[in-house]
Structures are given as structure tokens and as C-alpha cells.
Amino acid sequence: MVKEGGATISGGALGVDAVAHRVTLSQEAVTVAVMAGSLDNLYPSGNWQLFDEISHTGLLLSEMAPGSKPTRWRFLQRNRLIAALSEAVVVTEAGWRSGSINTASHANVLNRRVFAVPGPINSPSSAGCNRLIRDQLAELLLDAADLPLELGWREPSIPDQSSLGSLELRALDALTTREQPFETIAIASGLSRAELTLALGGLQIAQLALRGEGNGWLRTH
């Protein structure tokens, strides 16, 4: 995602937060850490080296006055800033009740897009993600590489047609982006049932055609 020009915004905590910041720094991209306490009370202290790196190439941010220590309610309060600063919020792991779920809740109120990575149904660390997806409070995310496309940062790629045979090209020309019955496609392409079956199989492998809900066929682009 950061290779597309995006930045990461997180809370600087141990675990997933720290990983997100470090990976972003390794890509020489911008990362922002939103603190629960003031900038003279950085927490956790074990991440002081990480915070130092972020301060040179990214941003350490706090709305707390100097001398303010991080408290439980301040962690929840700063989550609204993470949501407000973000174009989208991604929840990779979360228990049934967690700070990440709180951030996702703020994001929904602010009309930010929320994505969640699903996990095993018997895993407590995935319970929050699965609940967000089930309750339609988050979109399912399986691969971080999908984010730039989902957010409109990148146009969808068009599959290569250079390796298609003559039967597949004739079938492709007969297809539209609206589902059509097999027989209609056969008439439009001038192919026999056997030829069209073979051609559609090739187009499906090439990701140029797919079978519709009504058992017909349509092209993907």
C-alpha cells in the first residue's frame, strides 16, 4: 500500500502497531504514530527507538498537553484521531472488545471505510474481526495488495489477450458485461456447443469471462 504513495497511521503500541510502523519505515514511506499521552510521555517506553525513527521521517502526534500521562480512557480517546486522519481503517486482529474495535466504531461514525481480516471462528484474537464482517461494519480483506484498488488508487488491470486462440477470440467478441445464455453466445459467435464450451473454459482461466448466477456467461472487462 505504501508503495502506492499511502501512509500508515497507528497507535505506536507493541505488536501489530509497531509492525505497521516498522514496515512503513523500511519502505521509506510516511508513518504517523498517534500517542495516548503527551509527547514527553511516550508509551510504551520499549518502543522509544521506533518513536525516534518516526520523529525523523514521519510524525508523532498528540492532542494532550505536556506532562499528560497515558491512561485507559486516553487510549480510547486517541482512537478517534486515528480514524479521523485515515482514509480507511484496517483491523488485522481484534478480540471481541478491543481498541481496534473502538477505532473501527469511530471510523464508521465518520463514514470512513473499514476493512477487517477474517480469522478462525474459534480464535479469540479474530473474534472482533469476524464480528465486524458479520455485522457488515467492515469489508472483508484477504490481501493488503487489494487496498489500493479498493480505495481507487489504482485502476484494475486488464488480463492479457495476446495468447488467445481464434475460438476464444470469437467467443469473447460475442460476450458482453451482462450475463447471456449459452445458446445466445453460441449463435452470436457462430461456434458449435463443443467449440464454445472449450473457448469459454479458456476465457475463464484467462480471467476474461465468468459464469453468471443464472448459469449464463459474461465477460469481465
Give a verbal description of the structure:
It holds the Pfam family DNA_processg_A. InterPro entries: DprA, DrpA_SLOG. Belongs to the DprA/Smf family. The structure is a single chain. The relative contact order is 0.09. The protein has two domains: 149 residues, Rossmann fold (3-Layer(aba) Sandwich), CATH 3.40.50; 54 residues, Winged helix-like DNA-binding domain superfamily/Winged helix DNA-binding domain (Arc Repressor Mutant, subunit A). By secondary structure, the protein is of the alpha/beta class. Strand 1, helix 1 and strand 2 form a beta-alpha-beta unit. It has a three-stranded parallel beta sheet with strand order 1-2-3. It has nine helices and eight strands.
Q: Report the CATH architecture of the largest domain.
A: 3-Layer(aba) Sandwich
Q: From the alpha-carbon coordinates, what is the Rg to the nearest angstrom?
A: 24 Å
**Which range best describes the helical content: under 10%, 10-25%, 25-40%, 40-55%, 55-70% or over 70%?**
25-40%
User: What percentage of amino acids are in beta strands?
Assistant: 5-15%
CATH fold call of the largest domain: Rossmann fold
Which strand order does the major sheet show?
A: 1-2-3
How many strands, which pairing sense, and closed or not: the largest β-sheet?
A: 3 strands, parallel
N-end to C-end Cα span: 24 Å
Q: Uncertain regions: pLDDT < 50 for 5+ in a row?
A: none
